[in-house]
Amino acid sequence: MKIGNVELKNNLVLAPMAGFTDLAFRKLCKEYDCGLVVSEMISDKAILYDNDKTMKMLKIDDVERPVCIQLFGDSPKSLKEAAIKVCNLVKPDMLNINMGCPVPKIAIKSKSGSSLMKYPDLIGEIVKEVSSAIDVPLTVKIRTGWDLNSINCVEIAKIVELNGAKAIFIHGRTRSQGYSGKADWDLIKQVKEAVSIPVIGNGDIENEKQAKKKLEYSKVDGLMIGRGCLGRPYIFKDINDYIKYNKIPRQRTPQEIIDLAIKHINYALKEKNERQVLLEMRSILGFYLKGINNSKEIKVEINKINNIYDIINLLNEFKETL
User: Catalytic site residues?
Assistant: First the structure.
């Protein structure tokens, strides 16, 4: 799959997820054959203000390329300025504008995220301003609409293509649905049929069989994996092998999964301080441990421990009991 002038190894994309798709996790997903990784959403205004935490989120490692940085905001001017600054600072392979985040503080308290779906003209202006100001491909991430009474993803798709977007990532739910109900792949299919730029579908892809079924049904150019890869970065390899070679994925052993969790911690420790990694990993490790026998007690212990290296020791000890 090619987005603008960027050739991807395959058509699988890591969805941007706040609190999850930091550099450490992106590197893990890339090791398991993810074609394109996308950063957490980053505020345009925070970039322009040189916010310390935000600037650290912009870090890119060459091993994760091609990589896409996702921005959010509602001002064509500040998004353009932030996009130029990001391209000059870290040289991402492409940029993405978030038009799909359903979180109230993003989508209700401002026109950012999925709130933009209510303002097609503003979307067009944003895409035109940003795409004309940068040398890398601009992509957008949208939902099917604000709510079930205002489904407008096909209209929005045509607008962003007309104004210079090089690909569309679409999640098959409205803003009001959040992550409830089922993703509507009929609407994703309609978007694919309406434009000539690549369309990457997202929603309810939790295994290789679902991935192949959705790809064949919708005829989208690629698939974006979000919650389905948490604690399972190897899902990208599983989907690739199944679609390309009809290869049935093997089950990872609990020991392998725990080793992967520890690897994730060690990657995170290279980028963040111990306290930050400790707090973030308390929730992230739950995804790795899900489904492993007797892991409930370990999860309780993890939340009591105040040293990240003690958590690593606990995981190693738990692994020996399996």
Answer: 101
